């Protein structure tokens, strides 16, 4: 697998292009604000890929905001490596099934 990282949302613009095939993004956020909400929304609406938000924010409002802005899961820092791997596998399992069924429906409907 390939791992790319960026320090800001502007770097994401250069790292990710709409035609890129990305399996998963883990968006690490130190605090939840308007820019972070916009980045989460942009990622979830511009790319057909699962998104996990990892943050040290434990507030229920932040978890709900992330999920409402398009995150598929939310992990609180500090996290246990095994839990993150399990969450990645679960999200990929759910989204790969959905992607497959969407492709199948599109294929058979045309």
Shape: globular
Task: Indicate the percent of residues in helices.
Answer: 40-55%
The structural class is: alpha/beta
Would you count the extended β strands for me? 3
Strand order of the largest sheet: 1-2-3
**Low-confidence parts lasting 5 or more residues at pLDDT below 50?**
100-110
Helical stretch count? Answer: 4
Q: Helix and strand string, N-terminal first? A: HEHEHEH
Taking the sheet with the most strands, its summary is:
3 strands, parallel
Strand content is 5-15%
Topology readout:
Blueprint: H1 9-15, E1 25-29, H2 34-46, E2 51-55, H3 60-68, E3 73-76, H4 81-109
Parallel strand pairs: 1-2, 2-3
Q: What does this molecule look like?
A:
- By secondary structure, the chain is an alpha/beta fold.
- Helices cover 53% and strands 13% of the residues.
- The protein contains four helices and three strands.
- The chain has helices at 9-15, 34-46, 60-68, 81-109, and strands spanning 25-29, 51-55, 73-76.
- The chain has a three-stranded parallel beta sheet, sandwiched between helices.
- β1 (25-29), α2 and β2 (51-55) form a beta-alpha-beta unit.
- It starts with 8 loop residues before the first helix and ends with a helix.
Short précis:
With 110 residues, the chain is of the alpha/beta class. 53% of the residues lie in helices and 13% in strands.
Relevant terms:
globular, 3-stranded parallel beta sheet
């Amino acid at each position: 697998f390939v791992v790319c990282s960026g320090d800001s949302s502007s770097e994401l613009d250069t790292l990710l292009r709409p035609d890129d095939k990305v399996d998963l993004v883990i968006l690490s956020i130190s605090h939840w604000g308007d820019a972070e909400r916009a980045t989460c929304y942009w990622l979830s609406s511009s790319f057909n890929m699962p998104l996990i938000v990892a943050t040290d924010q434990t507030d229920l409002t932040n978890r709900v905001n992330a999920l409402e802005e398009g995150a598929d899961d939310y992990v609180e820092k500090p996290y246990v490596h095994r839990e993150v791997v399990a969450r990645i596998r679960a999200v990929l399992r759910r989204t790969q099934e959905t992607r497959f069924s969407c492709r199948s429906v599109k294929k058979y409907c045309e």
